[in-house]
Design goal:
The structure is a single chain. This protein is about 50% helix and about 10% strand. It is α/β, with parallel strands linked by helices and about 290 residues long. It folds into two domains: about 200 residues, Rossmann fold (3-Layer(aba) Sandwich); about 35 residues, no CATH class. It has a seven-stranded parallel β-sheet, sandwiched between helices. Helix 3 packs parallel to helix 8. The longest helix is centred in the first third of the chain and has 18 residues. The radius of gyration is 25 Å and the shape is globular.
């Protein structure tokens, strides 16, 4: 007759090291579950809000623009590399295209300098005690780096709202370290861009810039956010990218919606447009 095996000796170590014994706030595997998505989204709003309050950031100016619009030195280096590749195979359509694209990037390098100067002008004028009009970008390279760098040039704080992407995007080196945030959700990042915004300045860019621009325009059009100026930097570029007048002529937006957009050709003009907009709001008692 078989004997019943003796019970195993209780193992307290297994209990203490079980994932279920972790405090919920320390359970990374739990927080990563699909069912916890709403909690993660809430945290992506709350974390920057707490930090910006601690740093007395009252308002921001958000600078959008392309990651590939780089400073002149880097643009020249890339053009030279493309030309060297083409020299090895002059008949290659892909390499000819590479040179043409690199030439266009070089032609836009002045926008990097303009974003840098704009960041300096605003930051020097506004950061005294409580922080108004703090330069805020997506935290990446290109135009974003230029704007953060401009704030850094004058010893001012600036904000970077970076995001995890399939291709790693590291934050640029000119963001104030304590004000650099990383997001998983584009929607939460967009919300943080606009919560404290007193203006958007939109430099030439691609899909990401267009996404951020049209999101803000829709919110302004529908009155779902505070009134702010949206300054399009480089009218010729933007009028080739989007024919806003055509949209009005076609009746798919109102003529009045065109007034949501301002244009600027210099950093000084962009800053003057922003100041004028808010002066007019104050005169109307709406600020």
């Amino acid at each position: 007759m078989s004997k019943t095996p003796p019970p195993e000796t209780p193992d307290l170590k297994k209990i203490l090291t079980s994932p279920t014994y972790l405090l919920a706030e320390r359970d990374i595997a739990l927080l990563a579950r699909p069912e916890l998505r709403s909690v993660r989204m809430q945290l992506e709003i709350l974390k920057p809000e707490l930090v910006l309050n601690e740093h007395r950031v009252l308002s921001t100016i958000v600078v959008f623009g392309g990651t590939r619009v780089v400073e002149e030195r880097e643009a020249k280096r890339r053009l030279q590399a493309a030309q060297e590749l083409l020299a090895k195979d002059p008949q290659s359509p892909a390499r000819q295209r590479g040179v043409a694209r690199a030439e266009r990037v070089l032609a836009k390098s002045h926008y990097y300098d303009a974003a840098r100067k704009f960041g300096s002008i605003v930051s020097e004028a506004c950061q005294n005690g409580d922080r108004d009009y703090v330069i805020t970008t997506g935290g990446g390279p290109g135009i974003m780096e230029g704007a953060n760098r401009g704030a850094h040039d004058v010893g001012a704080e600036s904000i970077g709202l970076n995001i995890t992407l399939p291709e790693e995007q590291r934050p640029n080196a000119y963001i104030t370290p304590e004000l650099c945030f990383q997001f998983h959700y584009f929607g939460m990042r967009k919300l943080n861009f606009l919560l404290r915004a007193k203006a958007l300045v939109v430099f030439p860019g691609g899909f990401g810039t267009l996404d951020e621009l049209t999101d803000a325009l829709t919110l302004r059009q529908t009155g779902k956010m505070q009134p702010i100026p949206i300054v399009m930097y480089g009218r010729k570029y933007w009028e080739q990218v989007i024919d806003f007048q055509f949209l009005a002529d076609e009746g798919v937006i109102a003529d009045e919606d065109l007034a949501l957009l301002d244009y600027a050709e210099t950093p000084e003009e962009a800053w003057e447009n922003i100041q004028r907009f808010h002066a007019e709001l104050r005169a109307k008692g709406k600020q």
